[in-house]
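Practice problem: predict the structure.
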Amino acid sequence: MCIGLPMQVIEAKEGFAVCRGQGETRLIDMKLVGDQPEGTWVLVFIDAAREVVTAEHASAVSKALRALDLAMSGLPSSQDIDALFPDLADREPQLPDHLKPTTIG
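Answer:
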C-alpha cells in the first residue's frame, strides 16, 4: 500500500514544482497531474504528484498521518487520536453501502 503525502505547490516550473509539506520542501514531478499553480495541494508518492486535492482533503490526510505517527509511538491516549478524527469519534462505525448486506426477494 502506498501513502500519498499532502504537499502544497510553492513554486511552479514546467513539468515540476517545488512543494512544501510534512515539514520538508522537495522538487516534485508534476507530469501525472499536469502543471499546477502556486497554492495547489497534491498527494505525492516517491517525489511524483499523483492527485490534485482540496485543502480540506490535504488537511484530513495530514491528520491521519499524524494519528499514525502517534499510534506507532506507543504513547498516545485514545483522546489524542480521536482529536484528529472528530468526524469518527463518539459514534458507532458505519459500513459503506457497498459492504452492507443486501436482501433478496
